[in-house]
Amino acid sequence: MAQLSDDCFAFGGPMMSVDEAVGLITARVNAIADIETVALVDADGRVLARDIAAPLPLPPFTNSAVDGYAVRDADLPQQEERALPLDGRIQAGGSAQAPIKPGHTARIFTGAPMPPEAGTVFMQEDVRIDDAGNIVLPAGLKRGANVRPAGEDIPEGHLALRAGQRLLPQHVALTAAFGLTRLDVIRRIRVAVFSTGDELASPGEPRAPSQLYDSNRFMLMAMLRRLGCEVSDLGILRDERASLADGLKQVAGSHDLILTTGGVSTGEEDHVKAAVESIGSLVLWRMAIKPGRPVAMGIIDGTPLIGLPGNPVASFVTFVHVVRPTVLALAGGLPEPLLPIPIRAAFSYGKKIGRREYVRATLRRGEDGALEAVKFPREGAGLLSSLVETDGLVELGEDIKRVEPGESVGFLSYADLL
Ligand code: AMP
Ligand code: MG
Questions:
Q1: Cross-strand pairs, 118
Q2: Which residues have CB less than 5 Å away from ligand 2 (the ion)?
Q3: What is the mean pLDDT of the chain?
């Protein structure tokens, strides 16, 4: 498990910026080093454990990029078109029977190996066939046209994928193109997830009139799975220090991260802080982020704990900014900073200087065709509809005080967050 010292996340300042928080976490968390081998079909989303250098060039041999006619360099028409008799036929997966004779052209198909004596291919759409059955090639085509030289994509030996790369389908495709069948990846990060709160009932269980169904736990587990984690669903802990402490203590040794939601505000019924302090150490980070309130960071038996706020939107936003980089750091992944895309605001909004705020927004096309962000009409941090009915978050940096319609703002699509 990730062994961390007790004061690992201690922080002296009153308010921490989001960048400071991410910097602290990624510097302190020890990456898991356990490696396992998976088949290519199971590699999507996993973190690569070792660099991969190209074991062969891509493409592996020089080939035709089009269906057409191959010619020798000496036979390339210069000023005027030329009619060349046909000599040979080279299919994809095949090879030429004999070299193309000087003054001749060979039929060739996309992906077929170029005969060494030919350097150029004419697209079939650009030629015509004369009455004698010769292929009439237009003048002016450059030497080497429509040919894909061996290694033009990736030369042999090139560092093609780096350890720490979280694999996407295109990365898996590259390893398949290299002929690999299995990949060494970091084992999945094990995360224990709890909700806390006497007002919560699990879906499927009876719900008292004063209770609501626990939605955060399912949101957080889904987000964790998208980040490649192995998730233990540990249900709901009651708002009571001793049972909270018991529940957390039980999972500390066997997981890489403990994630809780709720109970980290400073109300009398927010017991997570006291529970963690009774069995480990905990700091409340007052992050300068809205929605967000305090986020708890702690260590129990060397296992890091993150306590997210209970309001669903605050939980979502702090997951993105605190849990996501922690999970990536634990998994030994290369940093994947979130880069907001500039977009036009179609709303006005006032905010506090010194705090980063996230505005839930929907994308639409303005009258001029440009993309613009429309703010969700209500702001409560408890509104699940505000996450469901929008496309992403407009990020308003610490220095911004006001946004007016027409101004450029940064947009993070939900699709890019996980
Ligand atoms: P807390 O952070 O525990 O003070 O909770 C803040 C608000 O979020 C309260 O209205 C809770 O009912 C709500 N809440 C807390 N945990 C959850 C959860 N797991 N699912 C849905 N709502 C929650
Ligand atoms: Mg609570």
A1: 72
A2: 197, 262-263, 310
A3: 94
Cβ–ligand 1 distance for 151 under 6 Å, the answer no
Please give the Cα distance from 385 to 338 (Å, whole number).
Answer: 24
Domain architecture of the chain: domains with CATH: 18-34+188-330 (3.40.980.10), 52-58+153-185 (no CATH), 63-148 (2.170.190.11), 341-416 (2.40.340.10)
Ligand 1 pocket residue status of 260, Cβ below 6 Å: no
pTM: 0.91
pLDDT tens column, 184-241 = 999 999 999 999 999 999 999 999 999 999 999 999 999 999 999 999 999 999 999 9
Query: What are the C-alpha distances in Å from 288 to residues 9, 266, 312, 320?
Result: 16, 16, 18, 14
C-alpha 310 to ligand 1 mean position (Å): 4
The alpha-helical segments, DSSP class H, found in 14-141 are 18-28
Classify each residue of 408-417 as buried b or exposed e, where b means 16 or more C-beta atoms within 10 Å of its C-beta. Answer: ebbbbeeeeb
Tell me the average pLDDT across 361-373: 97
Ligand 1 contacts CB of residue 217 (under 6 A): yes
To which H or E segment does residue 373 belong?
strand 371-375
Tell me how far apart the terminal alpha carbons of the chain are, to the nearest angstrom: 24
Q: Is the CB of 197 under 6 A from ligand 1?
A: yes
Q: Provide, rounded to the nearest whole percent, the portion of the chain with pLDDT above 70.
A: 99
Residue corresponding to tokens 């977009």: 343
Nearest CA to ligand 1 atom 11: 310
